[in-house]
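Here is one chain, start to finish.
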Amino acid sequence: GLRADRKSRLDKGAVAVTPLTADDVLLVDTTGELMGFYPHAALVFVGKSLTAQGAQNMIEPGLCGVPVLVGPHTQNFRPVMADLLAAQALLQVADAASLESEIARLLASPAERTLLGQRAVKAVESRRGVVARSAQRLLAALRDYSAMRTGVPSGASM
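Its structure:
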């Protein structure tokens, strides 16, 4: 019962069959534009996760506080998925029928959508800075290794 249109079709100059409203679906099938759409979405399904292609990024919609649904194929994001599932910050469905059912259920429950979005923001925010911290630890280990090999204490001036 939902009306939908593809963004790529509209970008090529096609006119929507009927004007899209807040109750319709815009399938954003273009690259590099999703972050601008996430904050306006009632919920987000992460593409490529119903097929064995490995899924797209579920971090970005989560960071925007949008409830996120994914299929079973999320192998490209195993650590992220583990964190988000543990925090009950997204919903994982088994197949297209389950996806349809969960979308209908969530659309009927604004409170649950809000809670999922809040959990997602919290889970994603808890991991901010992990790359910088990892790089600092790696550099410290390399300095220690270099000091051990050269006999020059790490942090010493030359």
